[in-house]
Amino acid sequence: MSSAPPPVQVSNPTGDLAPATAADLDERLALSLRLIDAVYDRDDRLVQHLVLEEHAECWVQDAQGWTALHAAAHTGSVDHIKLLLRKGNAVWSIPDNLGCTAGDIAFSMNNTDAYEELLAEGIRSEMLRAVLEAAHSSSGESDAASDAADDADMTALDASRPDVEAGASAASDSTTAAGAVAQLSTASDNATFLASRLTFTHDSRGQPIALDAEGNGVMMGWESGIMHQTARRMCEPAWGDRRDKSWAELHSEEEGDREKLRVMNVGFGLGIIDTYLQEYHPTQHLVIEPHPDVLAFARENGWYDKPGVRFYEGTWKDYLKALEAGDEEYVGWDGVYFDTYSEHYADLHAFFQTLPDLLSTSPNARFSFFHGLGATSRLLYDVYTSVSEMHLREIGLATDWSEVDVAGEGVGRWEATGASSAGAPGAGAAGARDKRTEGEGEKKYWREEMVGRYRLPLCRLEF
Ligand SMILES: C[S@@+](CC[C@H](N)C(=O)[O-])C[C@H]1O[C@@H](n2cnc3c(N)ncnc32)[C@H](O)[C@@H]1O
Q1: Distance 321 CA to ligand 1 centre (A)
Q2: Is 190 in the pocket of ligand 1 (CB under 6 A)?
Q3: Which residue has the higher pLDDT, 174 or 420?
Q4: 329-to-210, 299, 357, 359 alpha-carbon distances in Å
Q5: Atom number of ligand 1 nearest to Cα 224
Q6: Which residues fall within 8 angstroms of residue 111, CB to CB, at 6 or more apart?
Q7: For labeling, which of 71, 243, 427, 455 is most exposed (least CB within 10 Å)?
Q8: 359 has which bridge partners?
Q9: Residue 17 CB: number of other CB atoms within 10 A?
Q10: Measured in whole angstroms, how far is the alpha carbon of residue 435 from the centre of its chain?
Q11: Contact 277 CB / ligand 1 (< 6 Å)
Q12: Of 291, 317, 337, which is best to mutate to test ligand 1, by the most ligand atoms within 8 angstroms of its C-beta?
């Protein structure tokens, strides 16, 4: 990288650069590019000078999207990483043109210490963000976790999602407080998604898929392996023997001493996890689902007629309000699963906080959620694995992780269906799914070369 790269990308994340003239701006950019080169060349003195005395902008990206932090991750210099983060204004989560954060570069170069430093920075800053968001929402609002989520700002995760980009054909406009017009996407704005139409179809391999109005995959058949494992981990061994019995048989046994099984699933999609949960013939099976097209799909496929199954037709936030108002009963669920779409990590975090009220006190009660958080980047996936585990621990839940080989089944890819394409990593929303079609050919959803295997969380209340 010693030859000076051509045009730079100016994407000041803080918005605080206000040069007086274009010449000033050119000079600042040249300084920043020199810094990237100096870091890459391991020129300690020049790096120190540019950061500490010239105050070079550490967030500026070169032609391949690299920042000085990417260069430091490549050389593996922990000292440079610390300097850029602590004394410069480096941002740990900026992706390059291939979607790689500095941490991903360090990981791919096997620079373990550099990776650990960037991971620690990511965890620290995302934990701090959550605290600030909570303080912000509690200063102006009275109420529950659900309200906290309503205000959530974009996280590093969201900022790195391809599907958060504006410009999709079906996106709608919204005017921000600053007067700028922001595009709302079905993949990143829950209200926009809920107001849009869905298509239920099959791809050319026969996999069932649900697509939103922008052509993003809301749910796809290849995720069956994850859903199967999740239902199994949630229900076994405590309820394993229920699989051999019918619902009616179990129901009559439950009038005696037999323990009941009550499960709640937030987000029906294609009903894949619900199908697996049904293998255990739950006594009660509540599905929380707001989208009218999904509800129609469930009705057409006989879900409303299954014994013990009930739909709450609204969002999980509506459901919590109904609980508080006394319109829904506190049941004590033995299994709770959360997998929504076009929400953000702050929403999932807000849902976590309701779990002590939702879960039963049975030692067998389990919670799980779809963990696609940051699944386009090794660093983001590691950061959000840790952050979600810490947030769960804060409210008294211990998490065990197991792995599911998504790519090994040969189903981690799906063909475009010809639906309109739009310009993600996904928790984008909390769902964190990068499931869009790309016109022609195939698009990998699970980038196993980046993040490895799917991590399946299984959480229980610690008493
Ligand atoms: C990824 S799909 C769930 C797939 C499901 N796990 C399965 O196995 O088929 C996401 C679902 O969450 C629903 N959803 C979106 N926003 C929601 C919200 N705020 N509350 C509850 N469900 C929501 C969507 O309509 C969609 O049906």
Answers
A1: 18
A2: yes
A3: 174
A4: 31, 23, 11, 13
A5: 8
A6: 73, 74, 75, 76
A7: 243
A8: 333
A9: 15
A10: 12
A11: no
A12: 291
How crowded is residue 289: how many other Cβ atoms within 10 Å of its Cβ? 24
Q: How far is the CA of 17 from the centre of ligand 1 (A)?
A: 40
Mutate to test the pocket of ligand 1, among 228, 234, 289 (most ligand atoms within 8 A of CB): 289
E-assigned strands of 101-197?
A: 172-175, 181-184
Ligand 1 atom with the smallest distance to the CA of 288 is 21
Q: Give 206's pLDDT tier (boundaries 50, 70, 90).
A: confident
pLDDT one-digit tens code per residue, 392-409: 999 999 999 999 998 654
pLDDT at 252: 95
Q: Count H helices, E strands: the chain?
A: 18, 14
Q: Letter for the amino acid at 385?
A: T
pLDDT at 319 over 80: yes
Which ligand 1 atom is at minimum distance from the Cα of 291? 25
Question: What share of the chain in percent tops pLDDT 90?
Answer: 70
Q: What is the pLDDT of residue 20?
A: 62
Please indicate whether residue 273, judged by its CB atom, sits closer than 6 Å to ligand 1: yes
For the chain, which residues make up each domain, given as ranges?
A: 22-118, 199-461
CATH superfamily of 199-461: Vaccinia Virus protein VP39 (3.40.50.150)
Cβ atoms of 287 and 298 within 8 Å: the answer is yes
Classify domain 22-118 at the CATH topology level.
1.25.40
Q: Which atom of ligand 1 is nearest to the CA of 370?
A: 6
138-185: pLDDT as tens digits:
665 444 444 434 433 345 554 332 332 222 222 333 434 444 455 789
- For the chain, the residue count is 463
Give the DSSP letter string of 39-95: HHTT-HHHHHIIIIIS---TT-B-TTS--HHHHHHHHT-HHHHHHHHHTS---TT--
pLDDT in tens, 289-312: 999 999 999 999 999 999 999 999
ipTM for the predicted complex: 1.00
Q: How far is ligand 1, taken at its centre, from the CA of residue 327, in Å? A: 22
Confidence of residue 277 (pLDDT cuts 50, 70, 90): very high
